Amino acid sequence: MHNTVLLSEIFGWMSLINIGLLSLATLALIWMGERITSVHSKFFNVQAHQLKIMYMNYLAQYKLLVFVFNLVPYIVLKIVY
């Protein structure tokens, strides 16, 4: 029983940290999108319109990974125990 409580706390903190990082990355792209795009397009030699698609793919994949590997196990542990 003690292990499941500890595991639940670990998944809870992992979820909180990863959702915070996801929110920070989203806000950075909203507020400083043009500046970030110009730097990345020069650095990686990618066109700006392609970068915006790449940013959205990154955010979508990161959100999916956070939900599947952090949030869902946390919710399951809270429901079961």
UniProtKB/TrEMBL annotation:
Annotated transmembrane regions: 12-32, 53-76
UniProt superkingdom: Bacteria
Segments forming domain DUF6868: 5-80
Name of a matching Pfam family: DUF6868
InterPro entries according to UniProt: DUF6868
This protein's UniProt keywords: Membrane, Transmembrane, Transmembrane helix
Protein name: DUF6868 domain-containing protein
